[in-house]
Design a protein that fits this description.
- The protein is 31% helix and 26% strand.
- With 479 residues, the protein is an alpha/beta fold.
- The strands form 5 sheets. Strands 1, 2, 3, 4, 5, 6 and 17 form a 7-stranded mixed β-sheet that branches.
- α1 packs parallel to α8 and α3 runs parallel beside α6.
Length: 479
Amino acid sequence: MTDKYDVVVIGAGPAGYVAAIRCAQLGLATACVDEWVNPQGRPALGGTCLNVGCIPSKALLESSELYVRAQQELATHGVTCKGVALDLPAMMARKDKVVQELTQGIEQLFKSNTITWLAGRGRLVSGTQVEVTPADGKAQTLEAGHVILAPGSAPVEIDHIPLTDDRIVDSAGALAFDSVPRRLGVIGAGVIGLELGSVWQRLGSEVILLEAQEQFLSMTDAQLGREALRQFRKQGLDIRLGARVTECEIKRSKVHIEYEDAKGREQEQVDRLIVAVGRRPNTEGLASDESQLLLDEWGFIHVNEQCRTNLPTVYAIGDAVRGPMLAHKGSEEGVMVAELIAGHHASLNYDAVPSVIYTQPEIAWVGKTEQALKTEGIEYRSGVFPFAASGRARAAGQTDGFIKLLADAETDRLLGAHMIGPHASELVAQAVLALEMQASAEDVMLTVFAHPTLSESFHEAALAVHDRAIHVARPRRGK
């Protein structure tokens, strides 16, 4: 059986399904192939992000934050809560409901855009052919004018620390615990480790994060990383840097961990262990040898700045190509590629892609870090405004953190924004717009922000670039 399409997309995560929708909007006959099957045994759209990643983790982060607020914080607002108790099955059920509603929403989007959804394993046979193998049934070959590869990524596994059903788990397993571990270990204190560790720490676990790197959140601005480490340790997360795990063994329902740090060989014992040491591209078996698709030594698909592979009719997007493994980056690549296939001009500014860690406080950044500017020899000015000086943050009782802006010393053009504090995931969008529009610190300074809002802190940080912040004391100058 052979079907012909203008575009065939392999993968229905945030990169793939967005690419498919945009292709269909542009009038291209589009099919999308995906092999995801949900716990009920039913094919589901949305990929890792929607099913066992971004969405369920944010649902649990939100629920756990509300639980802590009800226990510890609402009394300061004059709201007394008695008998606050955790109903973990209800919390998990809500998480699953959110996921189900959103996956069904993508199904409706596919139907409304007349996209053919094929459940099964997609494999690139040639630049214009895709083989689809369903879980049960015969394989079929699709003919395509263009192919978009969006296979996503999977958690990195550690060879000497094999996963088990319930004791040693990856990020997906950590979203489905049926009880709160008394002691929880996490290998990796990056984005995923911090978010999952935060959820279970709020729900009652004693959480130990073992991070091999000496510098905490090394991909962030150094000042941001230092503040984040201070805040998380203050909350009770036991973050151990320079801790390289060498061995794990399950004994009497406990996970025994051996690791090495600056002190030498150390041991820990936990009830459950999460392995969160990064993700790898899902490209094994994605293409036949005959297709001659070019991959690098790490399994990433080789692409240019427009996501074109070495095959003229094949594009690749999302986690399987260079750049940060971020859902929104993959989605925008999907839109760009769809436009290019349709013959339109399109590009993506990778210098203005934001990153977010959805902890409490939230962490977000975009553009250059201070250490990167120093390395590149770029002269810059820095402006910092603390949320402690924000009226809205004070009213909300969320005053930890700051917003920091970096601007070119000569042109005043904004080069980077780094923030830790309430709703940083939303506030960073202002910085993204500013960088995309090539705004200067002065442009932000001359913009009127509503009062009282958290957004005023972004305004004040821009003012601080030129030592003009209104609501913080000016540093004393020597005579």
